[in-house]
Each structure stands twice: as C-alpha cells, then as structure tokens.
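Weekly structure sync, notes
Attendees: PL (lead), two postdocs, one rotation student
Agenda item 3: pending single-chain targets
PL asked that the sequence for the first pending target be pasted directly into the notes so everyone works from the same version. It is reproduced below exactly as submitted, 798 residues in total.
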Amino acid sequence: MKNKWLCLFFSLGLVVQGGVAQENPVKMWYDEPSDDWMKSLPIGNGRLSGMVFGGVEKEKVAFNEITLWSGQQDAGQEKPFGKEALRNIQQLFLDGKLEEGNAQASEQLVGVPNSFGTHVPFGDIELAFAQGNRTVENYIRTLNLAKGIASVSYRQDGVTYNREYFCSNPANVLVIRLSASEKGKQNFEVGLNVLRKSAVTTDKNTISFSGQVDFPTFGPGGVHFYGGIKVLAEGGSIRQNKESLSVENADEVVLIADLRTDFVPGDMEEMTSSALNGAEKKGFDTLKQEHETDFGRLFNRVALSLGEGKNEMATDERLKLLKEGNEDPDLIALFFQYGRYLLISASRENSPLPANLQGIWNDNLACNMQWSCDYHLDINTQQNYWAANVCNLSECNVPLFDYIGALAEAGTKTAKTVYGCEGWVAHTMANVWGFTAPGWGTGWGLHPTGGAWLASHLWDYYRFTNDEVFLLRAYPVLKQSALFFLDYMIEDPNSGYLMTGPSTSPENAFLLDGKQLSLSMMPTCDRVIVYEILNACQNASELLQVDEEFRGRVIDAIDRLPPFKIGKYGQVQEWQEDYEEAVPNHRHTSHLLALYPYSQISLDDTPELAKAAAVSIDRRLNAADWEDVEWSRANMINFFARLKDSKKAYGSVLGLINELSRENMLTISPKGIAGAPTDIFVFDGNEAGTAGIAEMLLQSHEEYAELLPCLPEEWSSGSYKGLCARGGFQIDLSWNDKAVKHALVTAKVNNTLKLKLPERTGHEKYYKNKKQIDPILLPYGIVRIDLQKGDIFEVTYD
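Predicted structure, written out during the meeting:
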C-alpha cells in the first residue's frame, strides 16, 4: 500500500531547514511512577512506540508498531450505484424532495465494512525487579523533548538506579538501559504481557514472539507479526525461562526491542534479527548519540519562550496550578513543543504509515470504540498535520503524502463504482486496506470531500516551500481529485450553480418540517473544499505551464460555485438553505473551514463573512452542553487566532490544556462524549493545539507574513526562533511589552517577502545580509523586499 514514488520524490525535493539551539532544557518531569496509561510518557521513532510507566518494583513499557492492524483488503467495500442513479437522486434533492432523497441515499449510498479493521496495541514489555518493598528516595521520571529520551532515577538502600528509554529512528529499534551507582545491582525478570495471540519463546539472551492480529470487532483479518527483545548484560548472568529472561547481579543491562508486520513486504524475522543485531554491534553509547543527533536535528529548529516558568515544579503539579487560575506561560510553551515532539515521534520520512487517531500509540480504548483507531478524514487526520509546516517539520509530512497517494489509487475504483465518475474520491473513514467508500451510515459517512480535504495538504506544503519539483509529483493527485468533482457536480437549474451532493456536513444534521435530516446538496463544507482543490489545480497548472484546456474547465467551475451565505442569526450558513440546526451544541463546525485552515474567509478580504463566522462560533460555544472535545477546542484556538481575538484564543488554549489534557499532557476525548466510558487519548488535539499557538504568533495565509497577529496580554514578552511562513521564509522574533524588538527572516527560496509588523514607529532599522537598507514601505505596516535563497532580512527597533 505504500506509495514510494511520492515519498522518494518528496525527499529529493525537500527544503532543509537549519537548526537553532534551545535556550533551556525542554523537559517534562514527575516525582512518582505512573499508575495509569494517561500518566505515562510517550516515545517513538515514527514506526515503533513506547509508553514509559517508570515503576520501581515492576516497570511497564507499552510497546507497539504503526502497522499492527486488523482487517484486510476488501473488493466488496462499495455498493455499485453509478452515474444514472446519481443523477436521479441528485434530482430528488434539487426538486426539494429531501426526505425521500435522504431515505434512498441511506440505503444505497453507503459502504460495506466487511473487514475494515483498526490499529491495535501489541502489549507491554514488563520488568519485574527483585527489590522488595524498600523505601524509595529521590524518585524522578523525565521526558527530555529535545533529545527524545525518557528517563527514571531513584535511590534505594544507598544505591542510585537509572534507566533511559528511547526509540531510535536510525537504528529502528526501541532501547532501554538500566544502570546503577554500584556494580552487580541489576536483578530483574524481562517478560511480555501480550494483548495479541502470540507464541513466545526464548533463546539464550533473546525473547522472540510471533502471531497474527485477531480483532473481530471490525471484521476478519489482520497482519502477521514477529518481534524480539535482546537482553545485553555487563557482568552477572542471564537465565533463560520458558517465556522470559532473568537477569542476575548484572552491572548494567541494555534491552533492544523490535516488532515487524507483514504489512510491509519482506521477511519479518530477518528484518527483526538484522535490526537487533545491528543495534547490538553499535553499542548503547553510539545508539544514544545517533538518536540524539537525529531527533535534535528536527526538534531544535524551533525555540519558544512565552515568559517565566516553574521548572522546579513537577509537570503534573504545574498543570494543577494552571487549572486553579495561576499563570504559567512557560508551561504553554512546553505544551507547544510537546506537540512538535509527538509529531516527530509519530511521523518520520521512513514511516510506513502516517499518524492515526492515536498517533503511533494505542491505549486499547479507541480501537474498542465505535469510531475505531483509524484515519478519520472529516478533520482528525488533517489536524494531525496542521503543525508540520509552520513548526518547521516539513519532513514529517512524508508518510501522509504517501498515504494520500495510496488513497487516490484506491479511490479511483470508488469514484467509478459508486458514482460512475472519473478521478478519485474518499469519504469519512479510511484504513490501511484501501477503504475509500462512503461510511456505513450516511449521517456521518457520506462525505465525498474528505479525500480532497486531505489532498489539499499537498498544495499547502507547496505554499510553504515553493518547491516546484515536489509540485510536479503532487499535481496529478490534485488533478484527479478535481476531475472527480468536475464529473460529479450537477448544475442546479434554479440558480445555475454547480452543486455536490447528496452529502453531509460532518457529522451534523438540520431540521426540515420538524424532521432531522443529514443530507443535502452542496453543504458549505463541500463548497469550501471543492473551491480549494480547484483553486490549487488552477494555480499549479499555471505554475507548471501544463493542462491549459483542463485549467479552463477548472476556472469555469470555480465561477459557478455558489457563494457563502449569511443566515437569519447573522451566522455563516452551514447549508445552502438557512435550516435550523438539529444539534446546536454539535462539536463539528465544518462550514468554517473557510476561516481555518483555509483563507476563503478573512478579516482583510471578507470582513462581513468574518463577522458571521464569529457569530457561528459564539452560537456553538454558548449552546447548552457544547460537545467540547480535544479537537474541537483546538479548532477554536485557530479560529480565534484568524479572527485576531487574543482573549478568546488564549482562553481556548487554557481550555485545551486544563480541561481536555491529562497528566502527561496528551489530549483527550473526555468520558461521556460519543459513548466513551473513560477519557480516551486522541492525537489531533495536541497537534492542532500546537498549530493554534503558532497561528497566534505568526500568520501567512494572506499575501504577507504577519508578526504577532493574536498576542494575548499574558504573553506580553517573549521570543521564538524557526517558525515558517508561506512563501519559503523562516522567522525569528523577539518582543517586549507586546512590541517587536527584533525580527529576522531567512529566505529558504528566491521570493519576494511582504512582512506586516505589529507597529511601525519610524524608528525601525532594516538590514539585508547585515547591510542597512530602505525597503519598500506599503500601507498597513507592510514592508516589501526581494530576497534570494539564503538572504537574511532584519528589522530592529531603537
């Protein structure tokens, strides 16, 4: 399923960014072991993952791999429908027969989840220590975000015990080292608590395990897997048990673990053995050095300071104080960097799959929920990658782009079978087996613009990098998505506009004659996404100087899309008609994609629509029992940032951290929402929250980059280094009392910079490559200057 052509070409065309040193260690730390998955610390290398609990008598590391999936490929996922039937049902809706159309679509425009599957957890690596119940002193459990290393240290009977944990991308293994201040103190048993049916064996110093995923909740099938744990001891001895190994009186012990599945072609046992043996030959010091260099190469590109911190206090205690109303801007900066840390850990250039609903970690909860642990294309997967470009982690997009290529391939069959159309389409829920059909419930699953929304990330990457080599490879995927809509849409004879549908505004419903309906023609979110794909194709074809005839079709279609509408409450309408919302407190606000992540609604260009968007948001937030979950709250940060409402944006940052994050700062869908029996980790809140904080500090969706567009009072002084703006620019900034003191822009490509400053006093000094200059001064505080790749433009204030 892996689409190597895009990954390879992307890697060749990658814009490499420079690194910046972190001014202070970026760490999370705790003074006791974790007794809950939501208190443990995540590590990962883009394929393998671990959750470190840090126990003293018994250590547990939840171990997993990104391709550990149930399910299988399914040729019968689509119900054949066809172009003639599509036109007939569209006509029902155009004739105003919405109830009849909804009933027909609910029977015929649904997918068949015969073997959809889900990502599942493997289980735990367990270490049982022969230390009894002796007193523990000076316990500390730490996650160093800049190094990608978790650690545990404590003192017992005069001996200090240390552990280090990391997942190495260069070596492609999980590594644990256990050491002590005295020799001969390592005594423990290494074993597995496996959640999958496995055959576990031992041979000398290695535990091996193999099996096949069997998780029938979402249908038959599952990958085969194989893995191993190699135990390397200095001094002492290793005793072989049936399914475990016992370490006795060793000075130091290193554990190296790997897990493979047959989702990726190749001999699983040979690949595992090669990785374990290769890591053993390198030795721990080399493994750690290579890992730190590799991880730091990405993490250290961005630094952020928002004010004083309470670093002497454990992270969970800082979170408690923040909830009580105490200010801790440094903790918010830590949350921002944590989002970057998680993305680096979950999505690397060589990852076989992109981050899913839980990144690469899995608490064994989401996969048992009705929504499963998959790829939701109605906002969640998109949010996973919102921070990648602006936060200087463009390489982390690679597995997502590969996955989009795979969806486009599978979605060609869906477009033809379901709609009788050319091009490709994907809907709400997707897996690793090529499921691109409508969902099995139209209220949430008939969302034909889901794949196009995801594909628009290809264009946004280009906008950040101006990488035409990449665009040349991405363009066919964008074009085929556009071709689907050109074929699929129908003209409304009443208005002359082109309309998608029947489709849903995820995952909402409206009232018509007292009845709750989900499907209509051209819900606003469809209009937004179709415009975005068509506009991307128009611009890409012009840049690449190809497809003039196709471009003409695209331009004509754009001109025939319906306009946005403002409803009776002053809100942006979610549907073409001003229907009453069936669920006024609904968590989804898909009609506001035009505000963010896109820029079809903006304060500058469409002020009336921006005001209407604010009304839509206020109506949602003020509705009784608003469904406040991690991704919807993170969404609000970005919305308010675009509206430049710093007070509400900051309030949403606090809401996400205080109410929708746990002790380890992983974001949650809280207990009770959508039937969840407990808090469930969802990756998207961390990533969209990080993107939102960046959006408050730097925006570039207009024709210029704007500094500090939504700065709250609480961040009146601070600095950042390494954030990225569209057009191929990297920006460093410092400010004091909300006034910019120094701005430095590095051009990563040849381009014209337009930079909007928060204020222009006339005392600014401008420099290009250290030489003072006079740039072109435009209205509204914008300066303009032509830059070549590598040029540095600076603004200083006296």
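Discussion points:
- Confidence is low (pLDDT under 50) at residues 1-23.
- The longest strand covers residues 224-234.
Action: rotation student to compare against the earlier draft before next sync.
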